[in-house]
Model the fold of this input.
Amino acid sequence: KAGVTQTPRYLIKTRGQQVTLSCSPISGHRSVSWYQQTPGQGLQFLFEYFSETQRNKGNFPGRFSGRQFSNSRSEMNVSTLELGDSALYLCASSSRTSGNTGELFFGEGSRLTVL
Amino acid sequence: AQTVTQSQPEMSVQEAETVTLSCTYDTSESDYYLFWYKQPPSRQMILVIRQEAYKQQNATENRFSVNFQKAAKSFSLKISDSQLGDAAMYFCAYRRDPSNQAGTALIFGKGTTLSVSS
Done:
């Protein structure tokens, strides 16, 4: 079974631009969550989607948004990029079974650099 | 709000030795999950071990075991017979409310980088 796939793996943007990151969960997993990882702040929860609905949201500004499609694939968007948005963005998926036990399956991440 | 603290930014161990990584957390809830995740240099995070707060018995997975002290809000990870492949960043994580209805959001500590020498 294929794991969580994130695209693109690396990208470079300039301040003020916007970016869209994509995540394909493990087949059958309906929950997708996003995390931002930086050296200073560590891993911080962005949001979670389940069956196309946002179920949970972290403490991030409205520039960060996401959505989930009917096939459970998810995208996150960051508008008006700032230097501080440079980070590794991790996507994680879980099934109803694994979600009940708390296990998340992570992708390798998308490394965003904002210049 | 719940918090997770890992007080050891870096740890080192020699092959075949035992190392313990520390984690403390703060919560007012009585039911929750605790996890240790491993993030090797390739970056994909994987689950090492999980502990349900209502279980008194400490979880064990092969060479990995935890010391869960609920009253002290402490959750340390012991790695026995350390191997070169154990070198990674280790994150302690907390999840409130095991009910799947509440979502799966994790609160992570800042991580401990473990190096293993031969």
The longest strand of chain B covers residues 88-96. Chain B touches chain A at residues 33, 35, 37, 42-47, 50, 91, 95, 98, 100, 102-111 (CB under 8 Å).
